[in-house]
Amino acid sequence: MPALLERMTGWVWSRPYLLLTFTALFWAGNSIVGRAARDVMPPVALAWWRWALAFLLLLPFAWPHLRRDFATLKTHWRWLLLLGALGIGTFNTLLYTGLQTTTAVNGLLLQSMQPALILMLGALVFGEYVRLPQVIGICLSITGALMIILGGDLSSLLELESNSGDLVICVAVVVWSFYSVLLRKRPAVHPLSFLAATFVIGIVVIAPFYLAEIIDGRLIESSSESWMAIGYVCLFPSLIAYLFF
């Protein structure tokens, strides 16, 4: 059985397109859950508990690697701080905040623009050469995302209404795109070490805003819906999707 499990794991990890497909699926669910939970879970609370619980679940598996990689992580603390603040602390907090006032459809549509923005930033920041197949692939990806989200009816775009939440999510999309481009600067450590370190940074970055939210009287509603939302976002779009990505 261990040998079979090892072969299955190796098969999965050797197929990046499969991993990225599941990543996109889990992140799409993140927007849907973030919107659905808006009445029972304040946005910053959802972001903080997402990463806090994800870190606790990850720590037993990451601890041996963290101990081994600590010196390298310490040496590259500036890049870790930036990546943790952007990809963990800022992106999802802005996303959940935007979903308070806009729809999940709008949120997903805006996020479908990320591949194009990542490609553009890669060219601007690192001077990467943009190839025609990449452009074609991104166009097909965006078209496919639009067809799925809109149920095949592109005329639905004309019926969408914009609001302040869309602007917040646009900022989140830019933040995530920078995070994706800068990932190449992550230290050469085990993936679990990197995730655990950036999770901690994100938790610390979010904490003051979560405290302000509590002081403002915006508290979590104790219900099955709120805890199911936290359970989903801490497991699938956090632990699993970030590891796949």
Q: Total helix count?
A: 10
Low-confidence stretches: none
| Terminal residue distance | 27 Å
| Spatial extent as radius of gyration | 18 Å
Structural class call reads mainly alpha
Taken as a percent bin, the fraction of beta residues is under 5%
**SSE string, helix = H, strand = E?**
HHHHHHHHHH
Structure description:
By secondary structure, the chain is an all-alpha fold. The chain has a domain at 26-108 and 162-244. Helices cover 78% and strands 0% of the residues. The protein has helices at 2-13, 16-36, 43-75, 77-98, 104-111, 114-126, 132-149, 164-182, 191-215, 224-244. The model has no long low-confidence stretch (mean pLDDT 84).
Task: Furnish the topology, listing elements before pairings.
Layout: H1 2-13, H2 16-36, H3 43-75, H4 77-98, H5 104-111, H6 114-126, H7 132-149, H8 164-182, H9 191-215, H10 224-244
Summarize the structure.
The chain has 245 residues and is mainly α. Helix content is 78%, strand content 0%.
Features:
globular; about 240 residues; mainly alpha
